[in-house]
Amino acid sequence: MEVLVFLVPLALLLGLLGLMGFLWSLKNGQYEDLEGAGWRAIADDEAVADKPAR
């Protein structure tokens, strides 16, 4: 049971760090355009040249 004296504060510290990281990401706009990256990945930006028929 002595190990709980170490583990409980460690768990609270890690939870606080996670919360701080999440709040930082909200403040910096990381969740503004959630679908944009997915659409950019499948967008066809290059013009596709037609291959001549044989």
Automatic annotation (TrEMBL):
Keyword Translocase tagged: no
Transmembrane segments: 6-26
InterPro entries: Cyt_oxidase_maturation_cbb3
One Pfam family here: FixS
UniProt keyword annotation of Membrane present: yes
Entry keyword set: Membrane, Transmembrane, Transmembrane helix
PANTHER family attached to this UniProt entry: FIXS PROTEIN
Protein name: Cytochrome oxidase maturation protein, cbb3-type
Organism of provenance: Bradyrhizobium ottawaense
Species classification: Bacteria, Pseudomonadati, Pseudomonadota, Alphaproteobacteria, Hyphomicrobiales
